[in-house]
Amino acid sequence: MSVKIGLNGFGRIGRNYLRAALAQGADLDIVAVNDLTDTKTLAHLLKYDSVGGRLDAEVSYTEDSVIVNGTAIKVFAERDPANLPWGEVGAEIVIESTGRFTKADDARKHIQGGAKKVLISA
Q1: Which tens digit of pLDDT belongs to each residue from 6-30?
Q2: Does residue 59 sit in helix, strand or coil?
Q3: Is 3-120 a CATH 3.40.50.720 domain?
Q4: Where exactly are the structural domains of the chain?
Q5: What is the CA radius of gyration of the chain?
């Protein structure tokens, strides 16, 4: 049974979490990403990383998702973590990788959105 993950922030750290999960075949299911950037740009940055190189996966996008190897990852564009519907997409753990919500009180806002745990990366 895989652990369902939400990524808050899909910059260098968020994309590297996804790349690592794919590379290791980890039992992690990235179900959603929150980032203010449009899905077309997010898909491009995931596929063609200036440091990590080209991702060996099929990457595409729709208006509200980035699709990796046929699996859709829902994309939100919400500034306030308390308003993110993590529970609705089944995200059990949120990886906080924006660098903005690094204090416990701020990170707890993800719990209000339905996440069970928050991992602060920055």
Answers
A1: 999 999 999 999 999 998 877 889 9
A2: strand
A3: yes
A4: 3-120
A5: 13
